[in-house]
Design a protein that fits this description.
The protein has 241 residues and is mainly alpha-helical. Helices cover 69% and strands 3% of the residues. The protein has a two-stranded antiparallel sheet with strand order 1-2.
């Protein structure tokens, strides 16, 4: 059996809207469309793909649900900011014990993010460093003004991931995003000083192109989170009995 057989079998089993969605996805890749680009109109796609407009509409709905496309009111259908990425791809929000999840996420982050920080220091472009400095500054402003800093904290870690120039690392961003947001929530933002200092140390190491120091500072930053979570868990246990 050859590859054509499997391709034919897959095509027969897929519905017409599914195949249309796949064709639109290929179009996005082939034309190298980005979130700034508008998708061709429903009529144009129907002509292009030789299907009915209703089928195009169903195919587009499938891609919107997969976060490949987004519909902007009054403007049309555009490519999503990060096509195919969803906020919680692994369903972390449905784990009943979020503290246990947080500790397990810390274990994984402790292995992955120091390497990410090292790679960021070694490979970041100047425009990447500019974004990193800006996001670090915004987090500091939030903390000093006693505002919720979780959203910008996430952006700081996302900016580090993008500095690596690695095609796979950005795909880990939804996991990092969920983890950072969860830690800020569970620790009730108690690590404000540690966050200020930790982010600044990581930033300085990356900007100095010091990969070893960047990895060390990231590991320390994650360790602060682990220690604080353990402390909170100990505080909670007497209340549970």
């Amino acid at each position: 059996m050859n590859e054509d057989f499997f391709e034919t079998l897959q095509t027969k089993e897929s519905s017409l809207p599914e195949r249309t969605a796949e064709q639109i996805s290929r179009l996005i890749v082939e034309r190298q469309l980005t979130h700034e680009d508008k998708l061709p109109s429903e009529f144009e796609l129907a002509e292009m793909l030789n299907v009915g407009r209703g089928t195009v509409r169903e195919g587009v709905k499938l891609l919107v649900a997969r976060n490949v496309l987004e519909i902007r009111r009054g403007k049309g259908t555009y490519i999503a900011q990060n096509p195919g990425e969803v906020p919680d791809p692994l369903g972390f929000a449905y784990y009943p014990d979020q503290f246990r999840l947080a500790m397990d996420l810390l274990e994984v982050r402790g292995q992955v993010e120091p390497w990410v920080a090292r790679a960021a220091a070694e490979r970041a472009r100047e425009d990447d460093l500019k974004v990193l400095r800006e996001t670090c500054s915004v987090v500091e402003q939030d903390i000093l003004a006693e505002r919720d800093h979780s959203e910008h904290d996430v952006q700081f870690h996302v900016a580090i991931a993008k500095c690596t120039q690695n095609l796979v690392v950005p795909k880990l961003i939804p996991i990092i995003t969920y983890a950072v947001t969860l830690f800020v929530s569970l620790t009730e933002s108690r690590l404000k000083t540690e966050t200020l200092v930790g982010h600044r140390e990581i930033l300085d190491a990356i900007c100095d192109r010091d990969g070893e120091r960047a990895a060390k500072e990231m590991a320390q930053h994650i360790e602060y989170n682990r220690v604080m979570l353990e402390r909170i868990l100990k505080e909670r246990k007497p209340e549970e009995h």
